[in-house]
Amino acid sequence: MAYPESIINTNSSLFKIDANLNRLVKKIELLNYINPLNIEQQKKQFFASKYRKNPSFTYRKIDFDTHKLQQELFKQEIDSIEDEATRLFYKDVIYDYSGLIECIETIGQGRKFYYNVLKCFGTPTQKDVENAQFILHFKDKEDDDEMFPVFSAEEASTYFQEFSKQYDFKFNLKLSNKTTAAAMVQNSTQTMLLKKNHRFSTNQIKVLANHEIGVHLVTTYNGMDQALKIFHNGFPRNVETQEGLAVFSEYMSGCLTLWRLKELSYRVLAADSLHKGFDFCDTFDLLFSQYKLNREEAFNITLRAHRGGGFTKDYMYLTGLKKVYNYHKKGKNLDNLLMGKVTLEDRKIVKKWKKEGLATDIRYKNNAFFENKNTDKTIDFILENLK
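Structure (tokenized):
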């Protein structure tokens, strides 16, 4: 985006550092490295062992020099940014990306990776665990035809392409057998990956469209519109807000179900099990034997928590949803949170930059946010009463 020369000249140090960081952090997309390469093989062996032998996962090789990248990050002359709030923000950016590099370089190294993850993502609190257990107390509803997995990945991709026509951006759609999620967005390449051998229900297709396209791709493309590339690369600790917005999009579009909230709750319990020292078999047993999930669901949730050596990120879907829900209930506009990979906590700096001409209004809005289409009173009750 072209900015007035006067703004660029006045903030020359800021734009220089932002451009340097943009060049440096292109490869720091943790999800590109943390999904195991041999999921299906290890799942078969795990099931064959009667759930007694922990899987041994392999991971993609790192294709950059982590030490050199750390050095380059800390070479940035942050003190040359005159505005104090912006200077402190970019210091935080550097420490955040440094932490993500430490996560990437220790993937597959057990507790070493887990401790780096704790610095970047934290772990569920007792309140988070109690919220998850509160949701799990609700009785499942009768079977709904929309919940049966009947569509192939190819059929789902046709729906996503049709859904995306409401936005005038193009994105790549690829099938993959190396993803732990049914679908995910790669921010750096504007690509939506679909799990190749997954069967999708009608509800899940709607959920993923509103979650992945309505938020993750919308924030990707809005971020690319901004002159400051940090909007696209990601604010420090943006996961909670981004996933909160994405699940809130499911809610507003009317496709958030009790089953989905329970899935997010099981993810909280799986992340909490890492803190308790559970290995893969222990977490699987918790979900499969105690909570009676079928073995495919139990395996997938356990895998998401244990990949890399212990990945806690998944508890933030529920905490983020509650924060975004509360924010919206106060009558707050969500547009600024869709400007890129931003956070609720840093909304003041976004407003400041807009006022100073360093950021602009969004081009793409989430259509689900215009009208609340949820009709499930149980979902409303739960969201209202989460702590």
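The first strand starts at residue 172 and ends at 176. Residues 202-225 form the longest helix (24 residues).
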